[in-house]
């Protein structure tokens, strides 16, 4: 049983190991990942987000639920993630479906953010058009006045998603473009990974 658990956790541990290495070598944001969603018409749609948790339960990130990505994920929870670290010459592709994190989990993470970021989460109508920067600055000032020195709670439309991977691909640079590609594909019972190696 413990052996099976360890085998299931292997790709998640590998993500964390590579992030630990990237943390030592990258100039900034070693947990930055591209998040791909899709539009209602089936067009790909991609942007960077920060990974805020990775364990056998999945990969967590936070955002505004009324943003473009939030709306696209509400419509179609299938998503893909890509990490790339120039200093390591490595990438990781991950695919799966997202689910909402619990309110308690989102509250705990939101509370850990700097106060200015928490105010920003209230003031930013992420992905919607604004008349100009002044509009955003006025919203920031008004929320600063509203919350004063008190607590800044999590806005209801700001929360996290957990991507439950069904596929991982670990890519490592090798000389002469003879790269290494190791894949993990989840079986139909969602309990075991089938490992394979792909031509570069
Ligand atoms: C390195 C980096 C990290 C980012 N991290 C986040 C994040 O964790 N959450 C988020 O909502 N946006 C993050 N952003 C901004 C997004 O890329 C994007 O501009 C924003 O979320 C709006 O995307 P959308 O219109 O597709 O919803 C980050 C941008 C960069 C460049």
List keywords for this structure.
alpha+beta, 9 strands, 9-stranded antiparallel β-sheet, binds flavin mononucleotide, single chain, Pnp Oxidase, Chain A, 200 residues
Task: Provide a descriptive summary of the structure in words.
Helices cover 33% and strands 35% of the residues. The protein has helices spanning 2-25, 68-75, 103-112, 115-123, 133-147; strands spanning 32-38, 44-50, 53-55, 58-64, 78-85, 90-100, 158-172, 180-186, 193-197. The two termini are 34 Å apart. The protein has one domain: Pnp Oxidase, Chain A, CATH 2.30.110. The model has no long low-confidence stretch (mean pLDDT 97). With 200 residues, the protein is an alpha+beta fold. The chain has 5 helices and 9 strands. Strands 1, 2, 3, 4, 5, 6, 7, 8 and 9 form a 9-stranded antiparallel beta sheet that branches. A hairpin with a 2-residue loop joins strand 3 and strand 4 (58-64). It binds flavin mononucleotide. Residues 29, 32, 47-50, 61-64, 67-69, 126-127 line the site of flavin mononucleotide (FMN). Flavin mononucleotide (FMN) binds next to strand 2, strand 4 and helix 2.
SSE layout and pairing:
Elements: H1 2-25, E1 32-38, E2 44-50, E3 53-55, E4 58-64, H2 68-75, E5 78-85, E6 90-100, H3 103-112, H4 115-123, H5 133-147, E7 158-172, E8 180-186, E9 193-197
Antiparallel strand pairs: 1-2, 1-5, 3-4, 4-7, 5-6, 6-7, 7-8, 8-9
Helix pairs in contact: 4-5
Flavin mononucleotide (FMN) binds at residues 29, 32, 47-50, 61-64, 67-69, 126-127.
**Distance between the ends:** 34 Å
Strand content: 35-45%
Unreliable segments (pLDDT under 50, ≥5 consecutive)?
none
Quick one: CATH superfamily? Electron Transport, Fmn-binding Protein, Chain A
Order of helices and strands: HEEEEHEEHHHEEE
What's the story with the biggest beta sheet?
A: 9 strands, antiparallel
């Amino acid at each position: 049983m413990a052996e099976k658990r360890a085998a299931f956790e292997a790709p998640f541990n590998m993500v964390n190991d590579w992030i630990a290495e990237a943390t030592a070598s990258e100039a900034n944001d070693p947990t930055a990942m591209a998040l791909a969603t899709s539009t209602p018409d089936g067009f790909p749609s991609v942007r960077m987000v920060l990974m805020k948790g990775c364990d056998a339960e999945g990969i967590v990130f936070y955002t505004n639920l009324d943003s473009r990505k939030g709306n696209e994920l509400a419509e179609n929870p299938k998503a893909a993630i890509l990490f790339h670290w120039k200093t390591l010459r490595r990438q990781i592709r991950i695919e799966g479906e997202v689910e909402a994190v619990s309110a308690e989990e989102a509250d705990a993470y939101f509370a850990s953010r700097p106060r200015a970021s928490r105010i920003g989460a209230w003031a930013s109508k992420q992905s919607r058009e604004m008349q100009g920067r002044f509009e955003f600055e006025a919203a920031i000032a008004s929320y600063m006045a509203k919350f004063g020195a008190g607590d800044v709670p999590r806005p209801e439309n700001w929360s996290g998603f957990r991507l439950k991977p069904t596929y991982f691909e670990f890519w490592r640079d090798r000389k002469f473009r003879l790269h290494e590609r190791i894949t993990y594909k989840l079986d139909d019972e969602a309990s075991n990974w089938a490992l394979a190696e792909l031509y570069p």
